[in-house]
Amino acid sequence: GGLAVFWAEENSRDAIFAAMRRREAYGTSGPRITVRFFGGYDLSAADAAGDQLVATGYAKGVPMGGDLKPAAAGQAPTFLFAAMKDPMGGNLDRVQIIKGWVSADGKTHEKVYDVKWAGDRKPGADGKLPPVGNTVDTKTATYANSIGAAELSGSFTDPEFNAKEKAFYYARVIEIPTPRWMDYDHAQFQAD
Question: I want to staple 94 with a disulfide (CB 3.0 to 4.6 A). Which of 41, 90, 117, 158 is the partner?
Answer without folding.
Answer: 117
